[in-house]
What we know:
The protein has eleven helices and six strands. By secondary structure, the chain is α/β, with parallel strands linked by helices. The chain has a six-stranded parallel sheet with strand order 2-1-3-4-5-6, with helices on both faces. It starts with a strand and ends with a helix.
Amino acid sequence: MTKSKILVADGNVQFRSAVRDYLITRENVGKVDVATDGMEALAMLRRDRYDVLILDLILPKADGLYVLEQLATSEASPSVIVVSAMRHEDMVRQACSFGAKYYMVKPVDPEALYRRICDITDSNVIIASQTVGISNTPRTLDEKIASVFLTIGIPAHIKGYHYLRDAIRMVYNRPDTINRITKELYPTIATHFQTSPSKVERAIRHAIEVAWTRGRIENINQLFGYNIYSKNDKPTNGEFIALVADKFVMEDARERGRSIDMKAAQ
């Protein structure tokens, strides 16, 4: 019997340990390695051959979509099962378009994950990409923000990620705050993170520059539904914060409208 070699790339130590400890006891699993971030996962995939990669989308240093993009250009890539807390349909479509065979939403039972691995390794034909465990449960604001950052390529390990998340959250809850970005927004975030307003401003600017450097402009335009930016047309901090916050406000308004229409129809 040929035993599978599996790589688990996930930033959560409890998840990595639980999956590895379960899988290594299975008769048809020969080896289970773990990677704690996206760059480590890519390095391990270059050094060794794996049959299956279990991949989270939110990873330090390089996110899961970047890993999938790199694997798309590789001649000998493992079959990929994405296991992530991100449940947005756009994320599912994007991951599957990059070659993921399955998309499973956390929390995931190791036994269910093992069954998906068997589906892949026991088949000699290409398995159509499938989604498992996708929920229609409304997402939190932080989940929505994380989804946007992941889509446009802002990595979670940089300081600007956290500052920008708080800024969007503040403007979402109090839209007029965007008019006091230097006098209130930056100082409030600086106090929360025990730093200076100028460092908050620079870190947010850097986070936006990273997204543009990584070249996911088409993702940004698709996210907002129209061609708003080009490679050389980078928004200011205030413009970007307001744009994302307004997107969530409008989405909430549409969801409330649909809810009212459904109640009226009943």
